[in-house]
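Help! Submission page says 'invalid entity' but I think these are all valid:
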Amino acid sequence: MKFCSNCALPISVKIPADDSRERFVCEACGIVHYQNPRNVVGSIPVFGKQVLLCRRAIEPRLGYWTLPAGFLELGESTSAGAARETLEEAGVEVQIGQLYSVLNVPQAQQVHFFYLARMTTPDFSAGEESLEVALFNENEIPWDDIAFPTVQYTLEWFFADRASGAFNTGLDAQVHCRDLLPKKQV
Amino acid sequence: MKFCSNCALPISVKIPADDSRERFVCEACGIVHYQNPRNVVGSIPVFGKQVLLCRRAIEPRLGYWTLPAGFLELGESTSAGAARETLEEAGVEVQIGQLYSVLNVPQAQQVHFFYLARMTTPDFSAGEESLEVALFNENEIPWDDIAFPTVQYTLEWFFADRASGAFNTGLDAQVHCRDLLPKKQV
């Protein structure tokens, strides 16, 4: 940030009087331009025993496999965002279920949310940000080519919970939380 | 947003070619200035049977009672942010526990997170954003003067879970999720 988005004059980096952190401050009009982490929202689309993954058509991690996910938009809830991203990237109108994982990626200034989601038909189509989309049985998951650690953790939790019967109790499954340290980032 | 923070020229509001939503776009330097919801992170500080609340010294809802909470900062995890806000607003170094509630407030462009938190001593002090801080038994909670619906829901869930024994199972309690509709906002 170089210029004030309100008055176009140059921005200073300083700690405001009532603050303890450096901020982008406009000394001309007085506005503090706060910056905050962003939310990435996605789903775990399930059809029978299979999980839907998308192969990324964009950077970062072009060519690697991911759960459908993207940035939460203004005016949108996290579950609505997860459904929208699933439709945009995989061409699937899922039935969104419970919040399943919340992962902090502070070095990327992001928080990732994944929701359980049910596909009512095995139909899908690659959106503009996907090279291809496919359903995978657990033993077919391309573990060596998963785009992001948050997706890998979420898939690992999902298959472990399914194996332990956690989804068959009639209750919500545990919401899995994890903070990712920089060394775990690809 | 009126001017580009990168080049200081006037901003346009338009739908970029590869997008479906209106964005702030600089047609001079080509940058799209995305805007995204922000995360508010807080805690439910518990000392014995009592819960700590802060009376707000700032708008919005000046004079009303809240759980300690504030905006997540860059480079920070949601749990670390909840601990920081509790220290800043209530002068308490809590032991942060499990994620307890996630509430979407899309009309305010916010997602709220509250963590269970344990106070090891009954010591606290009002920070700059608090008029006063106090410990409350359940029958003393100022329900008519709670600052935000997300705080009210979280407190209601907490006391209901405590009454039902949900915290005595040795397992994590359910993470409570809710989307707040505009009419529920104060």
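Support: the input was valid. A stray whitespace character was the problem, and the output above is from the cleaned input. Chain A touches chain B through 44 residues (CB under 8 Å).
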